[in-house]
Amino acid sequence: MRFALLTCDPLPEHDPDEAPLLDALRGRGHEADPVVWDNPAADFTACDAIVLRATWDYAHKADAFRAWLDRPDVAARVLNPPGAVRWNLDKRYLLELASRGIPIVPTAIVDRGDPAGVAACARSRGWDDIVVKPVVSAGSVNTARFTGDAIHDPGSGADLYVRTWRTDAPAMVQPYLRSVEGGSAGEAERAIVWIDGEVSHVIEKSRRFAGDAEAVSACPAVADADRDLADRVVAACGYAPLYARVDVMQADSGETVLSELELIEPSMYFSLAPRSVDRFADSLERRVATMKS
């Protein structure tokens, strides 16, 4: 089999998942190479599968990325499937999942042309500590926290910040959940890695805003509640992804809530769960066999 592991140029940061996955696939006798997704010279017709792994610039090229997904040579081979990827591009999917019974971080959407803006949105909901990001974004780019009077400051507040974005995407506004600080604040944010029908492993994550480095550690065991929620989230999305990352937080009420469902290019943290890369390689082999049948 021949696999293209999709990346971007330049990479905004090192992809630690690339080398383990290349080694796992090549060790099984397959051809596997990293390929820049929008390289005009890339020949995807020669691939059995093209796997979205580090396409971390897609948010800056959203229209081009959507058009690329529609190409016949891509649509027939790309994993995750194009329908799931298009749906997952816009974080308003969270509201769809909430309507299907999934508990989510409280979320409001503010259109860029809304004269009331982010500050008024926060005030109307009684939020005095918020996180703001574009609905189309990746890697914590343009993600920032505002508290108290700083939310409403006309010279440096949330609405001025949103106007600096080089995108027309609406803003997603959420209350800051202190549990992400861990310790006495509550359970830290967790990334539940789901591969081919089941939870593989769980990673604990530090909070991350624009410009921050990511700090992660492996959870020694998968809690039943995390496993059940991840299965519910993936089922509720309405697609059949090969892989997903279900990021969860603890709400102020103590309930575990979904912060993001990542179906496009999530880090899988293979190095923190050594058997997971073989699980992923197994799933790729099975999916290609299905695609060919």
> Total number of β-strand segments?
13
Instruction: List the helices and strands in order.
Output: EHEEHHEHHEHEEHEEEEHEEH
How many angstroms separate the termini? Answer: 14 Å
Q: What is the CATH topology of the largest domain?
A: Rossmann fold
Tally the structural domains: 3
**Strand-pairing-aware structural class:** alpha+beta
Query: Which strand order does the major sheet show?
Result: 11-10-9-12-13
Q: What is the level 1 CATH name of the largest domain?
A: Alpha Beta
Shape verdict: globular
Task: Give a quick summary of the entry.
The protein has helices spanning 18-27, 62-69, 72-75, 82-89, 93-99, 117-125, 158-163, 224-236, 276-292; strands spanning 2-7, 31-36, 49-52, 78-79, 108-110, 129-134, 144-147, 171-175, 189-195, 198-205, 216-218, 243-250, 256-262.
Structural write-up:
With 293 residues, the chain is α+β, with helices and mostly antiparallel strands. It has three domains: 2-88 and 276-292, Rossmann fold (3-Layer(aba) Sandwich); 90-103 and 186-269, ATP-grasp fold, B domain (D-amino Acid Aminotransferase, Chain A, domain 1, 2-Layer Sandwich), CATH 3.30.470; 108-176, Dna Ligase, domain 1, CATH 3.30.1490. The protein contains nine helices and 13 strands. The strands form three sheets. The protein has a five-stranded antiparallel beta sheet with strand order 11-10-9-12-13. Strands 2-1-3-4 form a four-stranded parallel beta sheet, with helices on one face. A four-stranded antiparallel beta sheet has the order 5-8-6-7, covered by helices on one side. Helix 1 links the parallel strand 1 (2-7) and strand 2. Helix 1 crosses helix 9. It is globular and about 60 Å long. The mean pLDDT is 93.
